């Protein structure tokens, strides 16, 4: 999956967790042992969500958008896909 957005009015109702759980199940079914996400550094909703789901920060990267004068900092987070993670 490239991007995951939720309608702001639908946040905190479990939709994000349900989507992540479905993607996690599919990744496990294909033999994945680790799951990664990239979140923009200013995403104040996404970072705590992924942290609560067991992801930890592995690195921060700087990328450039289509407007070369506008760097974007992304936080790359990962978690192991042991049986305890949903």
From TrEMBL:
Signal peptide: none
UniProt GO MF annotations: acyltransferase activity, transferring groups other than amino-acyl groups
Gene3D superfamilies: 3.40.630.30
Superkingdom, taxonomy of origin: Bacteria
Family annotation (InterPro entries): Acyl_CoA_acyltransferase, Bact_Acetyltransf, GNAT_dom
Recorded coiled-coil stretches: none
Keywords from the UniProt entry: Acyltransferase, Transferase
Domain N-acetyltransferase: from-to ranges: 1-82
PANTHER family: AMINOALKYLPHOSPHONATE N-ACETYLTRANSFERASE-RELATED-RELATED
Name under which the protein is recorded: N-acetyltransferase domain-containing protein
């Amino acid at each position: 999956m490239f991007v995951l957005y939720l309608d702001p009015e639908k946040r905190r109702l479990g939709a994000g967790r349900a989507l992540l759980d479905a993607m996690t199940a599919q990744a496990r079914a294909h033999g994945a042992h680790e799951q990664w996400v990239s979140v923009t550094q200013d995403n104040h909703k996404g970072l705590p969500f992924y942290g609560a789901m067991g992801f930890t920060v592995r690195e921060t990267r700087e990328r450039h958008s289509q407007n070369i004068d506008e760097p974007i900092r992304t936080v790359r987070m990962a978690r192991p896909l042991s049986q305890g993670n949903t």
